[in-house]
Design brief:
The structure holds two protein chains of two kinds. By secondary structure, chain A is an alpha/beta fold. Chain A is built from 18 helices and 16 strands. The radius of gyration of chain A is 27 Å and the shape is elongated. By secondary structure, chain B is mostly helical. The chains are: A alpha/beta, B mainly alpha.
């Protein structure tokens, strides 16, 4: 192995970098973080700029989505980062280096690049496609072969089956995964993705999105992804930059913030009327306070159950045993003539959600079961009740 | 049919002139092969130099087109003054004729490469030269090769006319035959030259099919 070549950080090193994130934030931002400072791109003969004085910081290890209508300059903005397009003015910092002072081809080899339809070279095998950047960086053959196999496994393609295939022998989704593997070949700290899932059908798209999130949880790259699909942006983005025609950055915030407080009429209009529901989809049940609700132990006397009903204004109580397991619920009629709650047969809650479910899913469960309350249960243990009113409150907070 | 004294059957003629015919066939093949090779190098270089610029591409194509429209006899005649007789004017004329299909197909082939692939290549950090050599030329290669194949067919035919300036090859048989039409073995000579060229053209075409198959990567083979 050549000593002159800088080793890409191994996965172990990458993990170490993440764990030291809090202590050494500045150092971490050096690696993969991207900054645009007052960046403008103007094409001669056009009155409005394609990118208009944009300043934004893309933190290391996050997925930032550039979202906007077609012609908004979002792709131009992304292509400025690896200098496929040169800015008219402004400054671009990649991994702490001034991108404009670097050799463009050197810069691009440090930034993965994935385009729609994958852009695989049809006359090269999967292995050659994936190994292109390491080959340009003059890695030795065994190292490239090993890396190609490792990457194919990373994107869930069996190396033995796929390394010798040509792109046209793969499905659209497989091609896109090979495209991602190619972009990650030299372990670049950052990756640019231009409408990567735009050309595949919705089912494959959803699966590829899940795979990307899963992959990202392991590799923690700085990813800049361009899309015009709002739901894709909400699903993938740690932050979303909403870009208006003329390359104007309208809002740059987390999906939750954008849905809660759109910064401009354009943003509100672009994210659409359903933003309350979209926001619920982003919020986990555990992020809201659940109420304990009317609650009794199986050993409790019926009198205590009736007291709990009265104080909560209900005609039923949840039955939870000493270990915290939810046994079900009983109502006033079910208790009549009995001495303790334990003698009644508790009925199961029809709407049960886990703290990891989204509020949108909880809302679905409540509405579908024609009830107004869902029990929140974490691995058999009762956490509380989520009422329809509580969900509606979140919806109204938009 | 008038029987001319000394006339033999076609097969007897071939047999009696075997050595000379084999030599002329070899010369013809060698001339065509070399001129197409030179035209391929020049044509691809010209194509590579101009394909990015529409105006330059149009200029190169039309220049090659103008050369192509000059009647072969006239071109060979015109070349006698600067180059004399024999091999030199023949090779130059054949090369010029072979250029058009190669230049045109190189430009068309390179311009036809999917621009998103070029963009992807730039995006992953390939240099200009690497993009040309590893992406654009391999993808345009089947089209360029088709141009060379057409050039070869043209060079085969024009090569016969090179005999007009004492050039090498089977043209000598045809010209001598036609010059003494009605004389002994005139038909045999013309026929031998013509059939020889047809045979060569078929062999070359077969070779092209083989080369095309061997040099086109499996991923883009139709």
């Amino acid at each position: 192995m050549s000593d002159a070549m800088p080793e890409p950080p191994s996965r172990g090193a990458a993990t170490a970098a993440i764990s030291s994130q809090d202590e050494n934030r500045a150092d971490h931002e050096e690696h993969g973080g991207i900054q645009l400072i007052n960046v403008t791109k103007r094409y001669s003969g056009q009155r409005t700029p394609a990118v208009d004085n944009v300043t934004m910081t893309i933190p290391s290890g996050e997925i930032v989505v550039l979202l906007g209508p077609s012609g908004s300059g979002k792709t131009t903005m992304m292509r400025l980062i690896n200098r496929l397009i040169e800015p008219t003015s402004g400054k671009i910092i990649v991994s702490g280096q001034d991108a404009l002072s670097l050799n463009p081809t050197e810069l691009r080899r440090q930034i993965g690049y994935v385009i729609q339809n994958a852009g695989l070279f049809p006359h090269m095998t999967v292995a050659t496609n994936v190994g292109l950047v390491p080959q340009m960086l003059k890695w030795d053959k065994e190292r490239i072969t090993a890396r190609v196999d490792e990457l194919l496994e990373l994107v869930d393609l069996d190396p033995v089956t796929y390394r010798g295939r040509y792109p046209r022998e793969l499905s659209g989704g497989q091609q896109q995964r090979v495209g991602v593997a190619r972009a990650l070949a030299a372990d670049p700290p950052a990756m640019l993705m231009d409408e990567p899932f735009g050309a595949v059908d919705p089912i494959v798209r959803a699966r590829l999105q899940d795979q990307l999130l899963n992959l990202q949880s392991r590799i923690r790259k700085t990813i800049v992804l361009v899309t015009h699909d709002i739901d894709e942006a909400m699903k993938l983005g740690d932050r979303i930059a909403i870009i208006n025609r003329g390359g104007v950055l309208e809002q740059y915030a987390s999906p939750e913030q954008i849905l809660r407080a759109p910064a401009s009429p354009f943003v509100a209009d672009f994210i659409g009327a359903e933003r309350g529901l979209k926001r619920l989809a982003l919020m986990a049940v555990k992020s809201v306070d659940t109420e304990p609700g009317p609650l009794v132990d199986p050993g409790a006397e019926v009198q205590a159950a009736l007291e709990a009903m009265r104080s909560h204004g209900t005609d039923w109580v949840a039955v939870v045993d000493a270990e915290g397991h939810l046994l079900g619920w009983v109502d006033r009629n079910g208790l009549s003539g009995l001495a303790t709650v334990g003698e009644a047969e508790p009925r199961p809650f029809s709407a049960v959600v886990s703290p990891a479910n989204s509020l949108r899913e909880a809302l679905d469960a409540i509405v579908i079961n024609k009830t107004h309350v869902a029990a929140v249960v974490d691995d058999g243990r009762y956490c509380g009740l989520l009422t329809l009113e509580r969900v509606a409150q979140e919806l109204a907070a938009t | 049919m008038i029987s001319v004294e000394g006339t033999v059957s076609f097969w007897e003629y071939l047999d009696s002139r075997r050595e000379r015919l084999v030599f002329e066939t070899w010369q013809h093949a060698s001339m065509v092969f070399q001129t197409v090779l030179v035209a391929l190098v020049i044509g691809v270089l010209v194509g590579v130099a101009v394909y990015r610029n529409e105006r330059m591409s149009a200029f190169a194509t039309s220049t090659a087109g103008v050369l192509f429209t000059i009647p072969s006899l006239a071109l060979l005649g015109l070349l006698i003054t600067p180059l004399g007789l024999g091999v030199a004017p023949s090779v130059v004329a054949l090369t010029l004729y072979s250029l058009l299909p190669i230049v045109r197909n190189t430009i068309v082939g390179l311009a036809g490469v999917d621009q998103t692939l070029v963009d992807a290549a730039r995006g992953i950090g390939m240099t200009r030269a690497a993009i040309l050599l590893r992406i654009e030329l391999p993808l345009a290669w089947p089209v360029i090769l088709t141009g060379a194949r057409v050039s070869t067919q043209i060079a085969m035919g024009v090569g016969a006319i090179a005999a007009y300036v004492n050039g090498p090859g089977l043209g000598e048989q045809i010209f001598s035959g036609l010059a003494r039409l009605g004389g002994a073995n005139a038909i045999n000579m013309t026929l031998a030259g013509t059939l020889g060229i047809v045979l060569l053209a078929l062999i070359f075409d077969g070779c092209f099919m083989l080369i095309s198959r061997l040099t086109t990567p499996r991923g883009i083979r139709v």
